[in-house]
């Protein structure tokens, strides 16, 4: 099976703007991207907010775990100033705000990563999942052409496949398998449509160390191709053209990038994408 080469802006235009903020998303939509990736957590009062980490500590001027804070408390945090003073006043977006923006751009897919895991949060995570999916439906971000659901949780994948059996939901997970929570109890790849292949020496979560090539050995891509899974790679800031060429040669069809502008230019130079 062949797939088109796609370019995804990771947490918006993350290199130049504070990640997972509305300005990062708006600026990413000015680029030649196929999709925008973002992350969602549920607050203590069951509201859905855009945030990568489980806590506010790294990206805002406040501290605390999202699941223990109300929406109002999360919205008090400044999500821009720690990136740069010029972005002071940027707030943590709600999932509603993000999806309302994406509804205006039906030509750009949403890659929504569910960050509340049953392996850690139990039923709270299933509620979070269902509320996120309900909002996607509300804004028309649904179906294979519009939405990919991402998670590091095998249990969430099983939940979605069971609860939404027969619905056209694209599920995206990760390699190596050890970074999938619950993979010691269930096989995650049987649920997936596509997989992000992390490579080289990794940290405890399976994420690539900065000095490593982001491109795994050919056998890994070949194995997933044999399973019928689409393979993607994550390209951070400091990736060179040779890595893109290598990923293409080994079968990668999706490129998720912090600097989607530069990534797009490289892919266009290599003739990998149709120019819009």
Structure write-up:
This protein has 276 residues and is of the alpha/beta class. 29% of the residues lie in helices and 17% in strands. It has an 8-stranded parallel barrel. The longest helix is centred in the middle third of the chain and has 16 residues, at 123-138.
CATH-derived architecture: Alpha-Beta Barrel
Query: How many H/I helical runs?
Result: 9
Distance between the termini: 24 Å
CATH fold-level topology: TIM Barrel
* Poorly predicted tracts of residues: none
Which geometry do the CA atoms define? Answer: globular
Number of domains: 1
Residue share in β-strands: 15-25%
Q: CATH H level: which superfamily? A: Phosphatidylinositol (PI) phosphodiesterase
Tag the structure with descriptive keywords:
9 helices; TIM Barrel; 276 residues; eight-stranded parallel beta barrel; alpha/beta
Task: Give the topology, please.
Layout (H helix, E strand, L loop, with lengths): L5 E5 L11 H7 L6 E8 L5 E3 L20 H5 L19 H9 L5 E6 L3 H4 L1 H16 L8 E4 L3 H10 L6 E6 L18 E4 L20 H10 L2 E6 L5 H10 L3 E4 L2 H10 L7
Parallel strand pairs: 1-2, 1-9, 2-4, 4-5, 5-6, 6-7, 7-8, 8-9
Antiparallel strand pairs: 2-3
Structure, briefly:
The chain is α/β, with parallel strands linked by helices and 276 residues long.
